[in-house]
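Please produce the structure of this protein holding calcium ion.
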Amino acid sequence: MAPAGTLRGQIAEAGPAVTVHNADIAATFEKVADLLEIEGANAFRVRAWRKAAQTIAALPRKLSDMVGAGEDLRELPGIGEDLAARIAEIVDTGKLALLEEIERRTPGDLAELMDLPGLGPKRVLALHETLGVTGIEDVLRAARTGALRKLPGFGPKLQEQILHALTTRGAGEKRMRLMVASAIADDLLGHLRTAPGIGEVAVAGSFRRRKETVGDLDLLASGSTPARIVDHFMTQEDIAAVVEKGGTRATVILRGGLQVDLRAVPAESFGATLQYLTGSKAHNVALRRLARADGLKLNEYGIFRNRDQLAGRTEEDVYAMLGLPWIPPELRENQGEIEAAREGRLPRLVTRADIRGDLHIHTRASDGSATLAGMAAAARALGYEYIAITEHSQRVTVAHGLDETRLAEQIDEIDALNATLKDLAILKGVEVDILEDGSLDLPDSILRRLDIVLGAVHSAFGLDRDAQTDRLLRAMDNPNLNLIAHPTGRLIGRRDAMEIDMPRLIDGAARRGVFLEINGQPDRLDLDDRHCHMAKLAGLRMALSTDAHRPSDLEFMAGAVDQARRGWIEAGDVLNTKPLGQLRKLLKR
Ligand code: DGT
Ligand code: CA
Ligand code: CA
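Below is the modeled complex.
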């Protein structure tokens, strides 16, 4: 699923007057990489586009601003002369001629096939070469006749998944990753704030509940004349189509295809409308039932007894009128939060400020882009007390994984750097591959020398539930292992979670003193919210990590914190809220 739609669809006819988001440029670069890979282009060339896409997606500043200010884009990691010119072309013209050219020469709809589960460029190429597939229809036929599962590297499970995706297509809505939506929401809010007579503005809905993906954006504004706010909103340059417009509300479609609902209300209703639009629907239904039991009426304008408004200006007032403390939006899924609120046992959710360090970081020794010292400096700037350097192990050759010798060299390098650092401790670690039989990709003799060992699966995602769970538990049997990184391996919208018996895994981890990671990469967010909550209830601690490959990736901690909060996680449940001394004890099994 392309996150923001392709740039082509987004701004082709509109031209350069439209703001080009970093996410659009990244999506365009990814697309070029995908299509080049299908064509069998040079692997280094493909990787250059892909790495650049990652750099762009993680960039804290807007490329359109940087190009506008005439800055030298070649200073960005992985961006050379050629790619810098491509970025400028997209910003200036709204298009990338090269992409159009590649799309013209790609047979049929091969590019579209990559939206299907499990289909990357390699498998698409295999489909094309062995079955002559050129589009969705061909894939559907191959899946129905069973031809698909016979292809090397496919199998019945993948065939099943593809068939399922194809037959529910259209019915399934497109959802956008939270981080991509954030950049767009910032722009929309910035524009709304300049409306005449504007009071407060907010994004409600699933966005405010920090769900990993959003179906649309629900904006809310207060002001003395709602109609003028709505009129002002309609002048936003990214609006491609208007679905509905009235005096207090509008629904529009942005150029990337994202729907935005706006409500404008008077200040005395802002809190009630914010509460209503934040949802979830299930939470709201339960609240309304509470109100009714008290002889009150709760709606999007406030709480009323007969015709008297008793509350509505703030959300706190609304909850208080129902005898409840304010409930953090991340919990509002009617999963027990209302009962917990009533009984005074709402969790004190972990915050970014509780985090003392990051336990999953790569440098350019494997597939990161910065030096050890560079990552350490970035971590210090965030005020961290410690970080762990965790490169890939030898098996992951595409990521330039470390063998025993290179890891030993890095250990020395870290020792030397630690001797010069006063206010940051660098833990020596690794992200060691968990092989298909559950053994680890490096010998115990070197793992024993590390402060922290992360185990991760990067292959054989398709084992059945029992085999996959056994594999992970066997890995945990190695007493050097501390933590399972991105435990389910899912990539949002691209790869399903591995089949794992989660209660058994969590129980096995808890028994062995192994922890699970909440990986903050925007397309991983793995563990998910449900599994976080499950782990918490089992008394298992989790690490909130970024899996950073460059300094700016350290910001992905926000995503890990969001996900943890949705999973009811408190500071005490988290490994990296502990001071270094306590952390070290917890890492001794
Ligand atoms: P999304 O957009 O699919 O990611 O999910 P939401 O939760 O943002 O849902 P959306 O945009 O359809 O509606 C925004 C909020 O409006 C929702 O969270 C709660 C509220 N809402 C929508 N429909 C209803 C309804 O039928 N009853 C009540 N009580 N609230 C509703
Ligand atoms: Ca929504
Ligand atoms: Ca909506």
